[in-house]
## 1
Amino acid sequence: MQQNSPPTDVWADDRVVVGRSTIEGRGLFASDDIEKGAVVLRLGGRLVTSAELDRLIAAAGRDPDASYVDTVMIYENAHLVLPPATIVHFGNHSCDPNLWHVDSYELAARRDVRAGEELTLDYGTNSGADGFAMECRCGSAHCRGWVTSDDWRRPELQVRYKDHWTPALQQRIDRS
Ligand SMILES: C[S@@+](CC[C@H](N)C(=O)[O-])C[C@H]1O[C@@H](n2cnc3c(N)ncnc32)[C@H](O)[C@@H]1O
């Protein structure tokens, strides 16, 4: 598969702000209305292999001063590692998100968003690294309780997020 290089840094629309979340800790919020389809976040950083990612996460685990490793799977064996401490770090997961991928690196509004709403993404749409599992407390009617790197296998999600997966997961779906 042809790989597109990521931008070196993250970009966020001015309407994306950080605030206290009812899902977990801090989250991203809309400071103004956002229309369906508007691109509000562009992910950036560098692509690393699965082995490099494992090494980065292990090193961060050994260092109490290390930043959290923000990462999403873009291609098989090619994971985007975001620069430390960008605004994207505060994006929480929801099983009924109002953002989704519109290409490898861009996230757009999945529906009209009102000022004050928390901006969320379904981590299942860009998490493919072996063994990822997170207990979910998003509180949505669609909440599946856990988010895992195998969620791309779920037929209802394949339908709901048609064409809104990162290329690695879309390719897995297409081949399954
Ligand atoms: C990239 S951080 C998101 C920002 C985080 N809320 C904070 O304040 O730093 C990802 C972490 O947030 C938490 N999180 C995000 N979405 C969640 C959800 N739906 N349910 C439970 N925890 C969630 C998990 O601890 C996850 O490892």
Note: The first helix runs from residue 50 to 62.
## 2
Amino acid sequence: MRRRGTIDEDATLGELASERPARMRVFERLRLDYCCGGASTLQDACRERGLEVGAVRAQLEAVDRDDVLLEPASERDWRRATIDELCDHIVSTHHDYLRQEMPRISDLLARVVRAHGADCLDFEIIERAFASLRADLDAHIDEEERLLFPACRALGRDGETGDELDQGTVGRQRDEHEAVGRKLTALRALTGGYDTSRALCSTHRALLESLRLMEADLHRHIHEENNVLLPRVGGRSTQTM
Ligand SMILES: [Fe+2]
Ligand SMILES: [Fe+2]
């Protein structure tokens, strides 16, 4: 095992993010996929992205040092929470955020299309891409709250029995996350990486900034489900989702 400093290059991105959530800031900055691609080792992910693993390790170690200075840890380690606490956190932090933000973003998009759609066809394509992502997410979080989380909570209360979710449920969950990840990647490409320097007006700038923040929150959200929640209820493998 290659271990230099505090970061193991053979650890997966999902493990590294779970161990110290502040590291997700580095992964976001470098566009390293730690949620749907959380089963890749740091070394493999860096090779794939053309990044020098030593330099990335140094950035992660710098974040670790800062995080220690900010004790108590700036973000909670959700691996140590109960299943109930984890599900409550995902609903109140990530699902409620989506329920609030997605209609607001749709409204911003409609205003941008009205103002600039005649000059640029891209806005209508972006509007359709976002509508498709929103429909998927609305259905996905609704199903999680009606079916998946109650099943996880029941297992959490009854952990000693060794019962687990069936693999079909776990696999379907991971597949849906991967589909969301693909739509997010497409949306990022369509909007030029959410580059606000190319914004045509203040509404367009607000739209790009809102999409960027929603993407970052979704990465965390999917990471907490794929790499923290599911492995505790039967999704032991973090193989590609
Ligand atoms: Fe969720
Ligand atoms: Fe989910």
Note: Confidence is low (pLDDT under 50) at residues 237-241.
